[in-house]
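QUALITY CONTROL LOG
STEP: pairwise intake check
CHECKER ROLE: data steward
CRITERIA: each record must contain a sequence immediately followed by its structure tokens, with no blank fields

ENTRY 1 OF 2
RESULT FIELD BELOW
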Amino acid sequence: MLAARVGLPRQGWKIHCSSTVDDGQSVLDHVARFCHERSTAFKYVPSRRHLAWRNSKEAPAAAAAKFITVYPPVHELDEWVRGLHERIGDRKAPAILGDLRWRGGPVHVRYGGFQARTTLGRDGLPVPAIVRPDGRFEPDVRGTAFDPPAWVELPLFLADQRRRLKEADPGSLADYAFESAITVTAAGGIYRARRRADGVPVVLKEARPLITVGSGQAPERLVHEGAVLEDLSRVRGIVTKVRAFEAGGHSFLELDAIEGDTLNRAVYSSNPLVAPDSDERTRVAYRDRVLSVMGQLAETVRRLHDLGMVHGDLHPGNVMVDGSDRPVIVDFESAAPVSTEVSRTDLIGAHGYAAPATVRGAARDEYSLAAMTLNAFVPLSFLHGLDPELVDEHIEAAREAFLLDGDLCTELAGRLSVWKVASSTIEKSRVDSCVGQNPTATPPGLLQAARSGLSALVANPEGGGSRVPARFGPQVAPTNDEGCIGHLQALSATGMLSPDEQMALLQDARRPCLTKGMLGGLASKALLVARLRLPGADALVGELVDEVDETVDLGLRDGLAGMGVAVIVEHARNPSERTGEAIREISRRLGGQCSMTDEWHVGLLDGAAGIAIFHVAHAGLIGDAAPLVKARELLVAALRRCASTDDGRLEVRDGPRTLPFLGAGSAGLGVAILAYLEMAADDELEAVLPGIERACSAELVVHAGLSDGRAGMMVFLAELARSGRGSPDLTSTMVRHVRRLEWHALRVEGGVTFPSRDLDATSPGLAHGAAGVVIGLDAAARTVAGGDALRALPDYLFLRGGTR
């Protein structure tokens, strides 16, 4: 609420107020009256439902418990903090992480931005920004501890409050030396620590008051978990509770530390199908290891059931595996007696491992165990609620790859088939009906089904798709790569854009874009309109030029690199001083601001590879090698961030994992290298392509989409084949990719479609849905056909400005 004639400063001290849901209206009334009396601005979450979500475990830690934000005059902060505290009173309210709490009440304070401004973070991506006294921007850090910028003077009254909090008795927390946070949520954290008395490593589990988990409060759930662990203390395979205590109003459990890792990292991550050519011996050894671990876990769960308990939330993240491959269940927050009537609100199982709500009692644990077993081989149980027929598809794939016993497959099918009972999906023919036995016919067959499914889903977005029932959460802002331009771009590139869809494109061209670059943003809209020779391309490019000075992002997806490629194409078609100056400014900024530190993104959509694409296009425009030098520097620096596996796969390092994908992984880097090699020979860069080809030849890929899935790998392989640099196995690899897309294909009226990024809904999106898969399938069809079809491979993503 912004009072008339009241301007909002760009940054400063802000006041946050928290509240329980029951007190929310009263707190809001007091704060609103206080602010109206002083003609100052404030904002608040709009409903009890939204406030309940802010006060729950599901809320991001940085946003949790924030109900009202007040923007006080800079010289009246002391008066306003004390005044609001007096108005609201000492009522109970949840703490806001990252803020300084005033005298234990609902009022909190932090320093930060009032208006949206951005700067580049350490990884090269835009982050919220504030301005230093010297005029430079720095990130507006929104962490979980009160830590104002060093150059901000802390008012005396806040310094006194901070000192009092630091001097408060830590209670039993003083008995521990904290080492690291395993996870931190709105409801509390899980920390690695050592007891000071004997140096023994332990895990501390924290619950924060007045934050809900399911239908209960976090401390109540932790007390419940402690009681369950005491009752089950004699059961092998369950974490040991050492003690429970309270400190600073928070509840804690001390648990024995398990030396190992979670089930998905300790076991699932070694699935041999991530390699392109694993042998039977390796797959059988992995199978035996999985079945040994899962057998021990099933025995632990059976003992729970014999004691009359149901775990209720089994998934790989709740199971630790030690160095002897012994699984230990470490989370009992949802455990309850078998006889307990659990409400739907308290059914908080993880997506992909939780049975439908119609399944209750011990059968929920049995379902979770079956899903965990199947996902160790083919990790796609997330899709079973969207298309229950995929249960049999995935079990058969696991049986074939890992030689699973028939009895085990029957048992898995029996437990996982509950989705068929819960589903009301229309009977449709199997995907196999459009995929013949002739491998060369496979890509066109599935491509046609996917095109038809995409058109049907776009024409009827509510009736043609499906979604797994989800909990309430924030409305995530849509991105253009999941919108109209994305699917029209896919249909256009694959020769399927109808006159009606061209009209839809013209109508969409008049709407503002949420992003500025490629994959459905303003740049790709301009290039698509130009490629189809529709009116309006020059106006769209004019919008891009107008945005250059205000754009912080450097990347291809939403920044200067993507914008620059579109402006280059327009300048080549219709040169002007205005577009020429914009290109020079983009080149200058990309050359000066891309620092390529160890944390900088190297991917195609948001990192160095995408910026290299711009420099290659710029070199082609001006006929000068200088931009190629910049492109090569970026590509070489990006390759230093890659890692080679023992079997020769080259992938981008991303923390503890490596990425082969188009959006952020080595496939995107490979596409940029191929674009560079069209302009200049380079033995060093060419030498890495076989490793990227191997990375993009994996049999197992969890996602189907373009940005982080199988379709993006297929696009790189098609570009590699077109360049003549692929291996003799490339065509057969492409056919296998198409066949493995059957693992993801969701049947809808008229064809098939594919899941969203979160694998919980169908999606027509370009980056993470059916539109991107259509592009991958078209690339596969052309690769398999070879000849003129491959030579005419479209510039699907306009990485060469749509000129091919």
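ENTRY 2 OF 2
RESULT FIELD BELOW
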Amino acid sequence: MSIMSNMNFGSRCGRKTLVVAISLMIAGLANAQSTSGSIFGQVPASAGEVVVVKSTSGLTRNALVDASGHYSINNLPVSSYDVTLQRAGKKVAQRSDVSIRVGSGSNVSFTESDISSASAKNLASVTVSANRLPIIDVTSTDSRSVITAEELAVLPLGRSTQAIALLAPGAVAGSSHFTGPLGTGLVAFGGSSVTENAYYINGMNVTDPLNGLGGIDLPYGSIEQVQTLTGGYSAAYGRSDGGVINQVGKRGTNQWHFGGQILWTPKWAKANPENIYFPPAAGNSAGDIYSYQHDNKTWTAVESAYLGGPIIKDKLFFFGSVEGSKSSGSGVSPASSTATQDNYHYIDPKWYAKLDWNINENNILEFTDASNKHQFGGNSYAYDYQTHEKGDFVSENAPFKTSAQMWIAKYTGYITDNLTVTAQFGKQVTDYYTQLPNSFNPDLAALYGSNLQNPKYSGGGGGITNTQNVYSSTNPAHQTRGANYRLDVTYKIGSHTITAGIDNQRTQDVDDGSVIPTNAGYAWAYNKMPNGVTDIVAGAVGATGIYPGGADGYYVSKYVFSSSATVRVEQHAQYLEDAWQVNDRLLLKLGLRNDQFTNYNNNNQAYIRETKPQWAPRLGASWDVNGDSSLKIYANAGRYYLAMPTSVALRGANGSLYSDIYYTYTGIDPTTGYPTGLTPVDTANGPGVAYSGNGEDGTPPDPHTVTSKSLKAEYQDEYVAGFDRQFNKTWVFGAKATLRRLKNAIDDTCQGDVFAAQATAEGLDPSNVRGCYFINPGRAADILVPDGNGGYGEMHVSGEALGLPHLKRSYYALNLYLEHPFDGKFWGRIDYTFSRSYGNSEGQVKSDTGQDGIAATIDWDYPQIMEYANGRLPNDRTHQLKAFGSWTINPQWTLSANISIASGSPTSCYGLYGPDQTAPNYGNGSYHWCNGVPVPAGSAGDLPWQHIISINGAYRPAFAGHKLAFNIDIYNVLNEQNTTTISQTNDSNYKLVEAMETPRYIRFGVTYDF
């Protein structure tokens, strides 16, 4: 296990020279390939020496030993190798089972005593463990963790790459509001939002193309290594200002292996979830049960199998695996007269296949294919909150299935000892299918906000609901298609190793969008103002008090939305990096990346075009202080650009419709939950006429008028400095400081009145001004306005006129760690991280309110929304302590643990605006004011600390040759169920619990490996 310190394990070299330092430098360059590593070392100098490495998959490479006794072989696929020293064509020493880690090098050195010992044993292998001695990798300047298949086999973790990535220092679990399209949880790195990461499989970017919410996962048993980059990564990586999760899949070897695993988590092995109660803000209902959770349980079963080996020995290899996961359970809706119990199931199959062809010693061809599916189905039944009994069938839940598949073809050519070329091409296709359930009633409108109904008519509590559980419907033909191709060239010349490449990606989002599928085409949305005299939307939608039933601020709206489009994004990048060994102790990495992004609308017209050079320097330095790899001081600085994903076009650049018709009401139908006694509320468009607060009235916008002409891409600057220190043969400790600053972002602002006024001032027609534009928050905007004759006028809107503050998101952290590499018995690591994430923007999403519309949250829409927005951000965790590792008691018994302790996230209070509690643009829940008092972001109290302890025990009996294993995992041993998410809107649900820690559960497993 290696995290942050990037340690490698092998024999220690005694003295260092410039030549060996250059070898070390080359070893560290494998990072650029994202799936490879290197082997280097020192031997007693002698004429005619050659070092030969041969992998378990038959690949053979060799390197001449120079006059100083040093050698290096880079760009080796991740595998296990035999390393042989030859003199005059004869083997004189050998080390076996040397493992390399992705992006790192393994030091394999020989001494005269090794050679003498091998000779005495007639060249029997001098077998060493790659973990025998920790050597700090003085060639790296980034921040990474690498977890291997052997470590994954024993650690008590969730079966996803996100769960693995959470082991990295500074990584925090994403909000429960968000999940990826394939059903996985998400992770945030270094103060960034959950949509700002990049996900890779065998060198290909497999990030969710719609919103950046996760990526494709390998079957757990197919993972060879997972590399998590949390900062300082090379110019070869881009399209992320969060972190990079890089999965390297297994490959076939010269021996056939097969195996399987069964995992089972029964309902009876799960602790009962705690119930949720109405918060103090609920008034008379405070303390009453809101949601009965006690019996909400699931069972889960996972079956997996793998097979790998040689099709042609030393030439052609195959590895394949399948994994099937199914879970089934039930959950009860919040208390109401029409409460339901949902019985549901999820099916999540995965598969992975890899072919490796060693054409010859200098040419390798690889092919990877992988797939994930996520499928849901279920039924709703009546539920009696008095007896806690399930009743009659009510309806079928809308089934859905998301299916993602990718493939990659990759060529590696070792053209000369100094020149390596890799070329890669791959495709990814994802299908999103949601089916209307058989029980769908097209004549019944859905209800929003039933808990905000006037209790005079609803009876209080959760309000009156109905059986409609389909709120929107998507096109069953919805699909994304992506293509990625890249070329990387590495050339060594003197003390410089130069790597250059191109990295291009195209993504198309086909038939995306959603509508309300009922015959009426609308839903009823209940809401409440604090009183009857405050406008629902200041100056646009009137107050309720002058209408029947509206004296206390209660109202309802007829809500309509619709969007549909086929859009695409083109991304191109070029990079150049020089690893320069200045002297025997100082290494500089000088990189430069240029990213270009273009977003296209439904008519294949560009509406965001960032094709001018966007230079992203990546600079790193590593100082081997003592010259023996016992103390490394390192630093790096870099800039990271991020494009807008495809989904941005749906609302921002196409004809989406989001509107409301507002009413007061004097009753509620007890069967349908519909409002009765309706009276239209006056709006800027007239009473009973639809009003769209942000101008989304269904009219397709002119792509020239969607964004500011001076729009620049999102980017972040990062600075890292740290040290790693080995203080004896078995322990390493270190520290690292990180500073990140988001310098620019893209979001929409909807100040139509400001834009219209500026148009008038510049002699342009204000009626041709749009309601919303994409801008760089805090900066001036240059907007094109149609002149009515087929041309455009241009207006300049200053930052002062927009009234928005400068964008701010800063993150600083100090990480301290202590690590014990595996010594045949024990390995472990402890991390403590102190950090702060603060500013006035989390990034592309809003975790505290669950808004996942990229560049379309309510932030920056109006100046009033950004007042008091500066503060601690939702992904802030001031203190984090992580510890994990395993202890091999004997060949039969292994114990392991994973501990995560973290302070709670900050919360906010969103209410109406100002001391008079008005709604100048949007309604309640939009402003950093509550009860007429400003509440700065993140200042409404912290959620509780989390203390998650999980343990694993494994038994591999000797009678089965240690090939059969029985496992027990206990997650959340303490059964802590502290709150992780609350409602932060200042209404009767303020501080209502929305999510808690997962209760304790036990997972049983049986594994067989042959």
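INTAKE CHECK: passed for both entries
DESCRIPTIVE NOTE, ENTRY 2: The longest helix spans residues 18-27.
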